[in-house]
Amino acid sequence: xxxxxxxxxxxxxxxxxxxxxxxxxxxxxxxxxxxxxxxxxxxxxxxxxxxxxxxxxxxxxxxxxxxxxxxxxxxxxxxxxxxxxxxxxxxxxxxxxxxxxxxxxxxxxxxxxxxxxxxxxxxx
Amino acid sequence: xxxxxxxxxxxxxxxxxxxxxxxxxxxxxxxxxxxxxxxxxxxxxxxxxxxxxxxxxxxxxxxxxxxxxxxxxxxxxxxxxxxxxxxxxxxxxxxxxxxxxxxxxxxxxxxxxxxxxxxxxxxx
DNA sequence: GTAAAGCGTGGACCATGGTCCACGGTCAAG
DNA sequence: CTTGACCGTGGACCATGGTCCACGCTTTAC
Lengths: 124, 124
Description:
The structure is a homodimer.
Chain A: H1 3-10, H2 14-22, E1 30-33, E2 38-41, H3 43-57, H4 62-73, H5 79-115
Antiparallel strand pairs in A: 1-2
Helix pairs in contact in A: 1-2, 1-3
The structure holds a DNA duplex.
């Protein structure tokens, strides 16, 4: 799979793929194809980009994503440290779920107000 | 409540409060106190900033937040249009919930792998 | 074989979401 | 009545996450 294909499959631009690569988010998921110097992207790279897209949509920064992926690939971390790191990220995901719930309540309340004809104030 | 108090209560900087104000996110929630030209912030403004913080943490842009708030305050929108707008935002929140679920699964799988001793690949 | 489409590299540019700084006015303690 | 903490304004600056462009090479379609 070359850059054009992976980009359109992942729903991002070629430039974005190259940018993620420069940021170290794809690393060994994309190898240069020696004969013609076109890079070859694996299915892993595609899943990786989709993961990044999801994470980004939730307000995670590329730096945070890179930290998790980077820690993964370099064997510098003991399994115990990896467990700690993942659990930390899971906690963050749960915090986001909480924020999401707060927002949903605010929006639902706003909807109720509008439907009952009282449309003055946006609930917090 | 003046800017220093609202900023520290909301956990943001004074500059951030001023920035949000310039972006039209606080509008009539902060009035200039005429005597000394210090601005007076209401409890509504505080809740507003907290709402912005939550929304931002979930990847909503200030522009999106401003659109919802702005549509609210200007009485240009009929209740029907407001309903449409809110339901649209609720759909976005649900999409984010889906992304969150995807991420949670990826992280849980990663945790499983680490715990079973197979620590090579980050699942998508 | 020639043209169009695709690729890699490098660098300029851009929008978003702030942060920092300097200036001058204001308020509160001593 | 001065000193220090706070405020408003304006503008420069910054990091993040891209986007765009020009260049020259490759591959694919005709």
